[in-house]
Amino acid sequence: MKMKSSVLEISEISRVIMDAIYDGVLIIDREVIVRYINPAYTRITGVKYEEIVGKNLLEVRHGARLPNVLTSGEKVLRALRMEDGIEYMVNMSPILEDEQIIGGISLVKALGDVYELSNEINHYKKEIHILKKQINAIQKAKYTFADIIAEDIASINIKKLAEKVSGKDTTVLITGESGTGKELYAQAIHNASPRREGPFIVINCATINHSLLESELFGYAEGAFTGAVKEGKAGLFEAAHTGTLFLDEISEIDIGLQAKLLRTLQEGTIRRIGSVKEISVDVRIVAATNKELEKQVNEKLFKEDLYYRIAVFPINLPPLRERRGDVRSLIFNFLREKENEAMRRIDVTEEAEKMLIAYDWPGNIRELTNALEFAYNMMTDYVIDYGHLPLRIQNHYLRNNTESSVGFEKLSDILRRTEVQVIQNALGVFGHDMDGKKKAADALGISLATLYNKISK
Fold it and tell me: Which of 156, 180, 163, 141 is nearest to 313 (CA)?
């Protein structure tokens, strides 16, 4: 476009381009004479080319606001217009050449298109909101302090200590043997903290190869290495922004990566692999380990300055054998969960309870839960007896309680019970009809008559 005397000339290429535009275009010169409209303008407004082009805009479009931009030099955005019952939205701008106004241009969009676009945007916003909620649900901590069973005096004191630090933004180091509930405490601390609405991200440092752990924690930039995602990838520190990052088995982090982790904790920034850009992160760290970090520091396996940075508030969870007062409550908590599943009452005999409380539980709460799961599947008539417990628990009790009223079960009873169970399993596979019983007898290597005889007993 260019001025030649008082006429605004529009080149052929400009016409071709504007003819192809979906939105309506109208151009006036500085004398308010319409010099161009595109086909879309006719489609949207209903005005024909010969009715408007070459004529004064104010004479053919009463109330037109485009001439105002010739005098004000200011854009007019999202102006609503209605002509002959047709609604549309107009954006108007002056056309400048050498800082002089030489004309004006209107970009016209049908209001129906605007509403449709608005509806699409709202639809996508709702979808994004739903996705965010789903992602947050995945990243939320499940357990609270209400889920932590603490009846033993040692457990009560530890729970109080953890509750106290939850409200602070302090780094916490949870130590204890495997199965003592370190992640349970980490989740409870997060859910009782001001960061509870933020994400709770977990990474087990022992399960990821050292070479991959850095990229998982810090992410990587575009083209950082062969096989990397083209656009790069955010790390878990970025994913945990405004929330909590739980570094389980922190003792397993490679000594070289420990230095980078320390810098992040000190500076509150991360740098993706292959990038020079620093990214600020607001993350609370809760770390856990089943190893003695002080010993690893002395052996030069763990950086001393990192140890002091993460051990600001240490919490040590004692093994279950040192808090036997919790065992009974843990047993009955498990049974309540199973009662909800079975929709009926489940009991445990006094003898079974004695064995469970007396056992040392080297695998701690995790081993106790597994043992109760085993007993639940072995029980009859919804009662867990000592004979349903794993043999290691029974043997431990019998070895250490010579005066116990719990004696050995007769071998004949054990054989008879086992025989019945095997026959029932076979009939469950082959069926209880005549044909199924024949196949079951063949599979067990006994005659059909023997099978009937054992069933009748």
Answer: 163
- Write out the two tokens for 210: 């050292």
Domain that holds residue 149: 145-318
Query: Which tokens hold the place of 288?
Result: 């856990």
Retrieve residue 63's tokens: 């109330």
Number of domains in the chain: 3
Q: What is the DSSP letter of 409?
A: P
Whose CA is closest to 260, among 290, 217, 199?
Answer: 217
Q: What is the rounded CA–CA span in Å between residue 354 and residue 348?
A: 10
Q: pLDDT digits over 340-368, tens only?
A: 988 999 999 999 999 999 999 999 999 99
Domain end among 95, 112, 129: 112
143 to 139, 148, 185, 200, 284: CA distances (angstroms): 12, 8, 8, 11, 17
Q: Give me the pLDDT at residue 234, please.
A: 87
CB atoms under 10 Å from CB of 383, counted, come to 13
- Chain centroid to Cα 68, Å, comes to 54
Task: DSSP letter for 380, please.
Answer: B
Residue 100 has, within 13 A of its CA and on its CB side, a CA count of 7
User: What are the tens digits of pLDDT across the range 258-298?
Assistant: 999 999 999 999 999 888 889 999 999 999 999 999 999 99
Amino acid letter, residue 191: N
* β-sheet bridge partners, residue 24: 108
Tell me: do 159 and 286 sit in the same domain.
yes
Residue with tokens 């549309």: 88
